[in-house]
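User: Okay, second chain of the day. Same drill as before: sequence in, structure tokens out.
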Amino acid sequence: MYTPDSMNRKALYWLCNFGGWFLYVLLYAVLNINRGLSFENAWLWFTIFFFGLFLSHLYRFLIVRFDWLRLNMSQAIPRLVLTSIVLSALLGFVTILTQVGLLFLYRTVPDTISISKEVYISTLLGYLVIFVLWTLIYFAFHYFLNHKKAEIENLKWQASMTEIELNKLKSQLNPHFVFNSMNSIRALVDEDPAKAKEAVTQLANILRNTLMMGRNKLVPFNDEMKVVRDYLSLESIRLEERLQIRIDASPECSAFEVPPLMVQTLVENGIKHGIARLTQGGTLQIRAWTLADQMHLEIRNSGQYKGNTDSETGFGIANTIQRLALLYNDKAQFAIRNETNETVITQLIIPKL
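Assistant: Same drill. Structure tokens below.
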């Protein structure tokens, strides 16, 4: 079955094979132009061209039929050298035979026709050089083609592994997010059923958005912030005046994309493991701005960061670091630290892809 790629390669092969022998015969004719043009000379040139084309194609058939491209150098070189010598001898023999036929037919020997032993040997060596060059070009082309193909296959494999790992990380986030949100709603059921009902509605809206976003590796920053705002509204019902929110996002940030639920996870960490544990509550501030081809994001929250001693906090941070590494390699940056004795700052730098 032929594919567009194989058809293009076949056309390229014939173009190069045809063009190579045409240039050789043309060069031969130009070097002998001072001896004049004749029907006998033209007949000899056509013979060399078409029989050379036939032999080189036969050479290719042998290479493909016996799979010489897969052999190592110690196995391939003797076969290729021997085949080049045999084909050169055949073409030389046909050349001499054509010259003898012309001599017999026309009872004359043009200046360009000579059947001496010296001329035959020089002709044979010339043809041997042609077939050796043909071999080098053919094998070099397939070497780089196979190298490129292997490189593409390797990239596809890496991409598939990355896709699997990203899906795994996203599948971890969704139940984690739902579990924490349901805990927040549960705290409202006895205390304020009306607010609990409102919280369930907001959670449904968030889940609907996250399910749509979960199909993509990246989502627009504005879509991610919509989920963040819905989540903050849900938490505001539970924490009431204990949660103060400030959001300052530059309009230029809308041109960037971020991994889905990444900002929401960092905001959730700031509230659940910072503000919610403080009796007086605290403030959560989100700042986003652009610089060159990067988006800078800062999340400040009241509280203290104690490293990854808390398994849930460690989960959110480890997940973020892994996803950034898979998607951006070393082009993205992430950091979390205690800015003061009462404030934690999380910093994220994301490039534009």
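The chain has two domains: 4-115, 158-351.

User: Thanks, on to the next one.
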